[in-house]
Amino acid sequence: MINMPFEVKVRMEFIAFGVLFQSYVISLLYGKWSLGNYSLKSGFNFGALIGFFVGFGTGLVYYATANLIDLQASLVDVVWSVFYYDIGGALIGWTHDKLNQEK
Q: Cα torsion at 14, 16, 18, 20 (round to 10°)?
């Protein structure tokens, strides 16, 4: 249990919408970034780039402003974000590859 001065309310509908929105935007960016060379590997690499941007870039901003986690947790979040977006990017690359093979 986390010792917080207030109750955290989880709103699953906003989490679902946020993940769908992120997936759509990352898929659009990947389509432009890959220049038509779609594959699992290029999607994985793109996911790593996005994960590092989100984990390190915004993670440090949150660390500096929100005061909810310490620096060590922020750095662990970088690793988690890269892993999370690697998997998502690989799936996006694989999906783009399969959809474009049929054309």
A: -150
Instruction: Look up the domain containing 63 and give its range.
Output: 35-101
Tokens linked to 100 = 């474009």
- Give the separation between CA 3 and CA 21, rounded to whole angstroms: 31
43 CB-near residues (< 8 Å, 6+ apart): 30, 34, 89, 90, 91, 92, 93, 94, 96
Burial of 29 (0-12, 13-18, 19+ CB in 10 A): middle
- Per the structure, the count of domains in the chain is 1
Residue 79 belongs to some domain of the structure: yes
Answer yes or no: are the C-beta atoms of 30 and 89 closer than 8 Å.
Answer: yes
pLDDT tens for residues 19-71? 999 999 999 999 999 988 999 999 999 999 999 999 889 888 888 888 778 88
Which residue matches tokens 């049929």?
102
> How much is the pTM?
0.79
